[in-house]
């Protein structure tokens, strides 16, 4: 029984470290590490499954669900910002192309005026 408690404590400790890594990677917009850490956390959670009726495990799972809900909201906000930034980039790109076309036209007119 004591070894079971030790195994649970070790897994919970590892999961808590992954939780901190998830928060850090999300804060730093490092979605590659975020995704990898989610996968690693899933593997640890699978190892906890045989102990799902233990109170400590239930508490950890509730905490994870709450944090994941907050993370999901944060990711949605970041996605909205990315979409807005992408739209602004496209508008700027079009404006630059139009600006360059006008510059090219004025340069070609200027050459024609010199020779003509």
UniProtKB/TrEMBL annotation:
| Top-level lineage group | Bacteria
Q: Which SUPFAM superfamilies match?
A: TM0693-like (SSF140560)
This protein's species is Petrotoga mobilis (strain DSM 10674 / SJ95)
Q: Which InterPro entries match?
A: TM0693-like_sf
Protein known as: Flagellar protein FliT
